[in-house]
Amino acid sequence: MRVWLHRSSVPSAYRFLVAILVGALAFALTACGGGDTERAGKPVVLTTFTVLADIAKNVAGEHLTVESITKVGAEIHGYEPTPGDIKKAAKADLILDNGMNLEAWFAQFVADVKVPHVVVSAGVEPMSIGEDAYAGKVNPHAWMSPLNVQIYVDNMVRAFGELDPDHATDFQANGAAYKAELGKVHAELVRTLEALPVNERALVTCEGAFSYLARDTGLTEKYIWAVNAEQQATPQQIASAIDFVRQRKVPAVFCESTVSDAPMQRVVEATGAAFGGVLYVDSLSAADGPVPSYLALIRHDANTIGAALTGARP
Ligand SMILES: [Zn+2]
């Protein structure tokens, strides 16, 4: 009571000043609230390349903003991040990398931006590179097996659940649905390529990026160079591919979308094998291109390989 009496006795000019201050404080709190709302928008997940971004979007659904650091068609092994990439990554909440020595630039990159990162290939059984200066090192292209990507999905479900616990059950449901799709694409892939006559089950490509796919489908893999970062295509490497094609009577050879096919065209000229088409590994295509998603990428590669090796042009 005494307080009220006391307040009623303060001069009106003073009360006016208090009213202004209270008003200003209220305005400041509202403004802060607005800022918090903006910051509390969807968490941002950055991936190192487009293929991972598409897989992550399938797990994230509408709850996270997922983007790729490298653009469609980029060479991803020896990529050099731009100042814009570093600025963008510094604002992200989580970065996903493939690991297995895929992104030679990545360790320095995350050291610069200090954002948490998760290696999505953790738990995958690695295959070694058989030939070249990389012999014995881990082959990083584990996503070329849809069964491995099921492990990538598990890692993403876990990471996204920690990043955004309110939507953890949605991430689990999205992950389970996408893993079912991956299982279907794996079955299609095996069906398409196991239909090939045994002597035609040879996959000759520019980069040694198909070891996991070749293992899943019973193909023998031969490549000009092991990893794109070192795509020197020496005369010895080209001669070795030519010998393989001649010995195995391989009807068609291939090259990937992110590199020049000139070295493989020399194999074509020397052997008479057909150029079977462009395969996609390290990047998706643009949205209106042939492989706008990871599932489309696997289907496209399986159909291109199957059609070219059986003599039907893709
Ligand atoms: Zn590659």
TrEMBL record:
Membrane-traversing stretches: none
Task: State the compartments where it is located.
Answer: Cell envelope
For this UniProt entry, which residues form the secretion signal?
A: none
User: Which keywords are on file for this protein?
Assistant: Metal-binding, Signal, Transport
Do you know which Pfam families this protein is assigned to?
A: ZnuA
- Give the top-rank taxon of the lineage listed in the UniProt record for this protein: Bacteria
Q: What is its main location?
A: other
Q: Which InterPro entries match?
A: Bact_metal-bind_prot9, ZnuA-like
The answer to keyword Signal applying to this record is yes
Q: Does the keyword DNA damage apply?
A: no
Could you identify this protein by its name? Answer: Metal ABC transporter substrate-binding protein
Q: What is the organism field in this record?
A: Nocardia iowensis
